[in-house]
Known about the structure:
By secondary structure, this protein is of the alpha/beta class. 42% of the residues lie in helices and 12% in strands. Strand 1, helix 2 (45-52) and strand 2 form a beta-alpha-beta unit.
Amino acid sequence: MSPRQPKNDNSRKGSSSIARRSLLERRPSGTRAQKKRFLILCEGETEERYFQGMRTRGGPVLDVINPKVDHVNVVVEAHRRRCLDDYDDGDEVWCVLDTELDRGLADRILAKAGGTIRLALSTPCFDFWLLLHREDRRAPFQTAGDVEKALKRALPGWSKGSTKFADFRDGVDDACRRARAVASEKKDHMRNPSTSVWRLVEAIRGSAGGGR
């Protein structure tokens, strides 16, 4: 018998090159391979617009999604996307949600998140986080609608559909400081009013090389 000839490995080269192309498509040079990635699931348009506006050329990758489902299912969708998408151990998955002054709802959200999904909760609602960019507020609100009215007084012309991060950028440091001060008074996600959105915002800003 003649000695076995080595197989032509063109097929292997072809398949490996396709795999490499696929990997490169998923991890563009200078972005995915080098930058931290945040998956941020929001329950509303206001939150979605705010975090989309935080994207910067030199900052981390922000995947901002509004799945348009109820609070608990936002967390369910976060678990699903974390498992299916190409997220590394150093990446972070967050859900930005309102408690609606409903402790039972907040407890269900916390239980569903477990220790895997990070939560940025606001009581009564995300609009309180926006209000803190403009003023320091400690008095409780009766409803989420009352927060919206207060924000419209602080920022005339604002509406949920017109939210732009640019309108709040100059007040981010103040908002983080004020939110931390509220949180330190009573470590309870149901404190009215309160918000832990500052944790997510500071994580994003810190991942941009310490820039602001």
